[in-house]
Amino acid sequence: MHVGGVPNADKKIAVVGGAKNLTVHSVVSWLNSQLPEYPGLKVFFRTISPRHFVGGDWNTGGSCNSTTPMSVGKEILEEESADKVVANAVKGTRVKILDITALSQLRDEGHRSHFSITAKPGVQDCLHWCLPGIPDTWNEILFAQI
Fold first, then answer.
1. Does residue 122 have a pLDDT over 70?
2. Which parts of the chain fold into alpha helices (H)?
3. Are 63 and 54 in contact (CB under 8 A)?
4. Most CB contacts within 10 A, which of 6, 67, 90, 146?
5. Half-sphere exposure of 146 (CA within 13 A, CB side)
6. What string of H, E and C letters represents the secondary structure of 15-35?
7. Closest listed residue to residue 130, CA positions, set 145, 112, 113
8. Alpha-carbon distance 46 to 32, whole Å?
9. Phi, psi at residue 57, to the nearest 5°?
10. 18 Cβ contact list (under 8 Å, min separation 6)
């Protein structure tokens, strides 16, 4: 686990990474154990939606003012999931991964940013997405897997 680009030395913070691992594996294991009772059911575990704050976080002046699609890149070069915890948890189970992280990372211009009726000066929403937009692509991927 890295914090600020360097290996983490704080054991209290390290527990957070372990907590995610434990939680994801527990949820996937439980879901997989329930699937034999529902043979026609398909279960998907969606990876995390990326945030695109630049120059700080939501409460420290971070922004997401990009208006250019794919300004951070135009293709996904990784063949495996960017979320290794989820990928490892679903491996060998009937739970499928709905991996939206890498493709969403390319679309930093798709956030609401400061374009909102409820926007406050100096605060931008770089977590939620505009509609129509990226979430529609997630739905298309889910539909293709169903």
1. no
2. 11-34, 84-90, 101-105, 134-145
3. yes
4. 90
5. 8
6. HHHHHHHHHHHHHHHHHHHHH
7. 112
8. 15
9. -100, -170
10. none
- What is the C-alpha to C-alpha distance for residues 56 and 71, in angstroms, rounded to an integer? 19
pTM of the model: 0.73
How far apart CA 142 and CA 116 sit, in angstroms, is 28
Look up residue 49 and give its DSSP letter: P
51-107 pLDDT tens trace: 777 887 777 777 777 777 777 677 777 778 888 999 999 999 999 999 998 888 888
Query: Which residue has 């969403």 as its token pair?
Result: 104
Whether 15 has a pLDDT exceeding 90, the answer reads: no
Residue with tokens 């679903």: 90
Q: What are phi and psi of 107, to 5 degrees?
A: -110, 60
Q: Which residue has tokens 């929403």?
A: 125
Asked if 139 and 100 touch (Cβ cutoff 8 Å), the reply is no
6 to each of 1, 10, 109, how far by Cα in Å? 8, 11, 28
- Would you say 47 and 83 are in contact if contact means Cβ atoms under 8 Å apart? yes
- In a 13 Å sphere around the CA of 143, the CA atoms on its Cβ side amount to 6
